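Record type: monomer structure entry
Structure origin: computed from sequence
Chain ID: A
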Amino acid sequence: MLRGRTLMEHPAGSPSHPVRDVVDYELLFDCVHCGLCLEACPTYKVTRAEMDSPRGRVYLMKALAEGRLALDDDAARHLDLCLGCRGCETACPSGVRYGRLIEDARAFVEKNYARRRADRLVRRLVGIVFPYPRRLRAMLAPLRLAERLRMRGLVTLALSGRPREWMELLPPLCKAPGPQTSTETAYAPAPGAPAVAVHHGCVTQVLADSENLNSERVLAAAGYRITKLRTTVCCGALDLHSGNLKRARQFARANVREIIRSGADAIVSAASGCSSAIAEYGELLKDDPEFAADARAVSAKLRELSSLVLERGAPRFREMRCTVTYHDACHLAHGLGVREAPRKLLKSIPGLRLIEMPESDMCCGSAGSYNLTEPAMARQLAQRKAERALATKARYVVLANPGCEFQIAAELRRRRSRAEVIHLADFLAMALER
């Protein structure tokens, strides 16, 4: 039900064909309404509302497309609340391309729905700052100074509401740099080794650049030849998730051009959301005659760090006597289907004990910029994830996405937990033999 209107049944005399360009209408009919997706959906598990489930949102998209429903506050709210985690795709026996559907539906919402002023301002701030590293660094410069003066805690206490929640999500900005070893001098690539480029992203290179550098270091230790991208722009994931397909395509074209120029045999990202976006370039640019072929080639080059390392055999790790649990980042597990390779690589480290986390593939609530635009739901999911992580009593929570790292670490800090949240690349680099 949506404000008393039934969407499950098709009213007699109403159109059974699209009158609005909301989504690829034919894709909606892949859904057989079995409901197996419901328990895989984080928002449904919290609200228990049908319209906050993938099945309910498919009904909603169909009703919007057929003109049976106006795009009002309720309809927009149910679509906005979706994390885009794609957990439903893993659960779906019919192969519904829900990720594609929700991205198209959000583009329709952005074009046709008048948001409240506060919501518009938040989304505009995210859109004009986060995809651009220089702007993000400039925005964070005062906070970086406050941190150097050991005043960040006071600044946080002085804030309230959403600004304080945003502040709590930020990792330390003045961390002492770890030992960085030049991949060019420390590791000689094997003869004929494939060339790998690490896409440094936008937010990642500002807030978690060690994850980019350590991805390169681990790949070099495995025998790959590291090639650098001259320029790196946002992968477009933030725009895909927020419905700005025009700019997402602009970013995609720039990345395709640079990756092809680099001659890399494989492309890796430390952010699983970026990996998933790059993997979709072939679909995103399929109607662009200049870039379609190259976009498909780039999508085919997209690989994941642990899978790539295992192909050449894990490098030599020192003994690490510790307990670890692993969180499956949504777009890595559900978007790219990578689950076992990170676990296998972790288990290859001498002395390490891996403890499985309950609901390891349930979204933590980060979801790109979701925790900035939907903080209440994001916080509930972070609390659920923290409880599951703490139940393992592991010393380290390892994951493969910086957004998840910031989200889970913030919640564990609130609970004064000693468990350390760490990116897979940083953990593997820490375990490499010196």
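Annotation 1: The beta strands are 195-199, 225-226, 266-269, 322-326, 352-354, 396-399, 420-423.
Annotation 2: Residues 51 and 57 are 6 Å apart (CA to CA).
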